[in-house]
Write a structure and sequence with these properties.
about 600 residues; alpha/beta; 6 strands; about 60% helix
Length: about 600
């Protein structure tokens, strides 16, 4: 796999520069399209829509090439040319579009700015480190790497999270980074989305006249909680959250913005956000639908509903989302792949696979106390409380009711599908309500002027979560900034690192690996599969069997029944899972690798 090949070439500075350059290039592509078609949006909305449009455009280009297996070196070079043009355009327009208002800070205000910097610094360091989170190693990075290796898009049944192509739109856009050899650069791109989110809410709060103290609190708490530590990764979390928050902002302020901006520009903005939300995570599909319905409701209220306006709202979904849905249906007879496949006439995704997948992902319904503990760990309690405090904000009552209805219906749908247990499925709603409240503070909240009172509030609300952040960061030392530190980091945090290095010297170059365990897949030394029916173009196949999860034989592979052959490698203490949590020891298990024979 590409990640294995590039392990020894990782260097934090080049990884950062490539990730940052890619982000700017994608932003430039989107900005060029907006300027070309005459979309006039205010700052920071234009910057957000531009980078989201850029990701959608790059992703769609990769998809169209991958559908026909046209991802040849020439096609990839064309992708590079497209990104280079986007980079040149964004650099040429940088000073015009990214003008930050000049503010003079007093000494107390400088202290508040310092607090924000201290809160964001650990996340920046996290983004520079090699990927170690299991979701990244299991499927987030696997998607783009498989497309690059196959030269096109193949439907794989496992990992099951990657068997839902319509929610992988963001992952498709990472193929150029994989082809460059920077498989960890998507972590930096994710941080850039977080940076754009922070810059945008600063812009909006400054425009709204929010006091510097509350700006610093808003920015600080936006960086804290386990949500940021866990999901600043190669996944689509920050991308989806930025799109979801912007949709929240536009839905909340639609009436006010329509008085100074054309309804068409607002509809186009919301319309471009919908495929981004849909393509970031399937759990956000209800939220995207509710935002779209809210926009249609506003059109009715303003007596501007028409087919043309409806098309302005829906055309981005038809262009950027429908192709992957159609491809998935053509491949599986299920428009969303594995998910909801039980409701469609599909033979590729059999009932046994679906049943075994659901059984492996059984969710025990948490108690209210467990829900509360998880929420408080992921989001600062002041952010969670914003769901209630939002009711005291100065927005018109109808707009507050509208957003409460969207949130409540969305959360009820998550509850119905057993997805409410994890804050990652909430679409960043707590923070959306929190920032929205800061943008329209009631007068009583702006009155406190005593510096010590403000400092005390920061200590109570920020310090506990800041302590958790730095505790996790301390646990990752020494950072892999030298070759020796890099090897030590790999051995400590990359599951199966030593096993894969040994297997690389044993296995034939054209061999394939097979396992049923949820393990680090992207650092495997050869192509690796989790469903025997997915194995293809493999002259020889080797199985990774773990003591607590023995394989069942025979296995149907490449239209033949395979059985066990000779053992080629064994390790009684193989590290199959590692944790960034302080004082949590890695999980070890006996690993046996043997050749499979038809």
């Amino acid at each position: 796999m590409p990640s294995f090949l590039y392990l020894e070439h990782y260097f934090f500075l080049s990884n950062f520069l490539v990730g940052l350059t890619f982000f700017w290039a994608v932003y430039g592509c989107g900005l060029a399209f907006l300027d070309l078609f005459g979309f006039h949006l205010p700052t920071p909305l234009k910057q957000i829509i531009a980078v989201i449009l850029g990701v959608l455009a790059v992703s769609l280009t990769v998809q169209l090439l991958a559908f026909g297996f046209w991802l040849t070196p020439l096609a990839i070079n064309v992708l590079y040319g497209m990104l280079a043009a986007g980079l040149a355009y964004s650099v040429s327009r940088f000073f015009f579009h990214f003008k930050t208002p000049k503010i003079t800070f007093s000494t107390p205000q400088l202290i508040f700015v310092g607090v924000v910097f201290i809160c964001i610094a650990p996340i920046f360091i996290y983004a520079l480190l090699p990927s170690t989170k299991i979701d990244e190693l299991f499927y987030h990075q696997l998607v783009a790497q498989r497309i690059f290796m196959d030269g096109g898009l193949i439907f794989y049944r496992q990992p099951w999270e990657a068997a839902i192509p319509p929610h992988l739109i963001y992952n498709f856009s990472q193929v150029p980074l994989v082809s460059l050899g920077f498989t960890d650069a998507p972590n930096v791109v994710s941080f850039c989305f977080l940076g754009l989110f922070l810059w945008s809410i600063y812009q909006w709060m400054h425009q709204a006249g929010t006091p510097v103290f509350w700006i610093s609190v808003g920015l600080s708490l936006s960086c804290l909680g386990m949500y940021r530590l866990v999901f600043t990764s190669a996944g689509s979390h920050h991308f989806g959250d930025l799109a979801a928050f912007t949709a929240f902002y536009l839905s909340l302020n639609f009436t006010r913005l329509s008085q100074t901006r054309s309804v068409k520009s607002l509809l186009s903005g919301i319309g471009l956000l919908l495929p981004a939300i849909l393509g970031a995570k399937m759990s956000l599909a209800p939220y995207a639908a509710l935002v779209g319905l809210a926009a249609i409701f506003e059109l009715y209220q303003q007596k501007q509903f028409s087919v043309r306006n409806l098309l302005l709202l829906l055309w981005p979904t038809l262009v950027f989302y429908l192709p992957i849905v159609a491809w998935t249906y053509a491949q599986t007879h299920s428009p969303f792949g594995l998910i909801l496949s039980q409701h469609f006439d599909t033979t590729l995704i059999d009932k046994h696979l679906l049943a075994s997948t659901l059984q492996a992902e059984i969710v025990n319904t948490p108690t209210f106390l467990e829900h509360t503990q998880t929420a408080l760990l992921h989001f600062p309690y002041l952010v969670l409380g914003a769901f209630v405090v939002f009711g005291w904000s100065d927005y018109p009552l109808r707009d507050k009711i509208k957003m409460y209805l969207i949130a409540i219906i969305f959360l009820l749908i998550l509850y119905k599908f057993d997805l409410l247990y994890s804050p990652r499925f909430w679409g960043n709603l707590p923070l959306s309500f929190f920032i929205a409240t800061l943008l329209s503070l009631p007068k009583w909240a702006t009155k406190p002027t005593n510096f010590y009172l403000k400092a005390g509030l920061i200590l109570v609300t920020v310090l506990p979560y800041l302590g958790i952040t730095y505790l996790y960061l301390y646990n990752l030392r020494p950072f892999p900034f030298t070759i020796t530190q890099r090897t030590h980091f790999y051995r400590r945090f990359l599951p199966l690192y030593d096993d894969f290095r040994t297997l690389d010297n044993i296995l034939p170059k054209n061999a394939c690996l097979y396992t049923q365990e949820r393990i680090n897949l992207v650092h495997a030394p050869r192509r690796i599969f989790r469903d025997s029916l997915d194995v293809c173009d493999c002259p020889s196949v080797y199985a990774l069997e773990f003591k607590n999860s023995p394989l069942s034989f025979p296995l149907s592979i490449q239209h033949s029944n395979y059985r066990t052959g000779k053992i080629i490698y064994q390790n009684p203490t193989s590290v199959i899972s590692t944790y960034r949590t302080p004082n949590k020891k890695p999980k070890t298990e006996q690993l046996t690798v043997y050749e499979l024979q038809p």
